[in-house]
């Protein structure tokens, strides 16, 4: 049976991916295998959902759009009945992954986050899954090309965004996805961003509160062209931080920020 899907809604940031080749490559980069538990945000017309199910993954697909949810519920009913697909009608920013797994009696909470996300909430989604909710073992997201480049930068031009990701895992720029492979076509090209080795061990090993870390990073980037002591006066007076007196925020690594935060809060 053919299903008639509604047009994309700009208000929900919908740009439907058309290319199965891109989806296949994306799942390859995400190392999807049979038995994986996958959370998908905004399944849309289901191009990614269907391939995940074909590969033998158990999928939790969160869809906010009323019409799309209804169509997917009908089209993929067999997978829902077999408990291979859990279709959730909600806004991802309101969903607790921990509670969702408990409700559906999923014992293995190791999962992957794989999705073509609304680009206007990229930062909120990354914060939710890295900082606030049950962390995935791997993330593979279609994001704006420029955002993927900023996150994976390696030339000493770090940002609050890149540091906020790298302190939790290892991001990599997987490949570019041209804008004409979406419907409607967005104004910019996209890219698949993959984050591996996700954990909070840098915080636990250093006995640091995440909130304190981000407070220091935000202060350090307040005037990113200026040297650190202009943003963090504590560096001027702390002998342990003397090596940072002539540095700028964008040149520091997550480990540098961990050390600075630890020193400021423990001294």
Structure, explained:
The protein is α/β, with parallel strands linked by helices. Helices cover 38% and strands 18% of the residues. Helix 6 links the parallel strand 5 (112-116) and strand 6. The N and C termini lie far apart (68 Å). The mean pLDDT is 91.
Write the layout of secondary structure elements.
Layout: E1 16-17, H1 20-29, E2 37-41, H2 47-54, E3 58-63, H3 66-75, H4 77-81, E4 85-89, H5 97-103, E5 112-116, H6 122-132, E6 138-144, H7 145-151, H8 160-166, E7 170-177, E8 182-183, E9 190-196, H9 201-205, H10 210-220, H11 228-231, H12 234-237, H13 254-266
Parallel strand pairs: 2-3, 2-5, 3-4, 5-6
Antiparallel strand pairs: 1-8, 6-9, 7-9
The total of beta strands comes to 9
| Biggest sheet architecture | 7 strands, mixed
Gyration radius, to the nearest Å? 20 Å
Q: Average pLDDT value?
A: 91
Number of helices: 13
Helix content: 25-40%
Going across the major beta sheet, what is the strand order? 4-3-2-5-6-9-7
Low-confidence stretches: none
Give helix and strand order, one letter per element, not per position.
Answer: EHEHEHHEHEHEHHEEEHHHHH
Shape: elongated
Distance between the termini: 68 Å
């Amino acid at each position: 049976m053919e299903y008639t899907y509604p047009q994309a809604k700009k208000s929900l940031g919908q740009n439907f991916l058309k290319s199965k080749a891109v989806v296949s490559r994306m799942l390859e980069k995400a190392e999807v295998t049979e038995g994986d538990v996958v959370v998908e945000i905004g399944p849309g017309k289901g191009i990614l959902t269907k391939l995940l199910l074909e590969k033998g993954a158990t999928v939790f697909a969160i869809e906010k759009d009323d019409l799309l949810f209804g169509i997917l519920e009908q089209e993929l009913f067999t997978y829902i009945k077999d408990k291979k697909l859990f279709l959730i009608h909600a806004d991802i920013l309101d969903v607790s992954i921990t509670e969702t797994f408990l409700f559906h009696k999923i014992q293995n909470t190791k999962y992957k986050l794989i999705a073509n996300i609304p680009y206007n909430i990229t930062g909120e989604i990354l914060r939710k899954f890295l900082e606030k909710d049950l962390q995935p073992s791997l993330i593979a997201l279609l994001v704006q090309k420029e955002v993927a480049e900023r996150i994976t930068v390696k030339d000493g031009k770090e940002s609050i965004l890149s540091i906020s990701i790298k302190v939790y895992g290892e991001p990599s720029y997987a490949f570019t996805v041209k804008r004409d492979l979406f419907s409607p076509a967005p104004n910019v090209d996209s890219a698949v961003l993959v984050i591996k080795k996700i954990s909070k061990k840098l915080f636990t090993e250093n006995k640091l509160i995440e909130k304190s870390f981000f407070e220091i990073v935000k202060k350090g980037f307040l005037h990113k062209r200026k040297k650190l002591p202009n943003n963090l006066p504590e560096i001027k007076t702390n002998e342990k931080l003397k090596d940072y007196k002539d540095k700028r925020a964008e040149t520091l690594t997550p480990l540098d920020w961990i050390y600075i935060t630890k020193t400021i809060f423990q001294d």
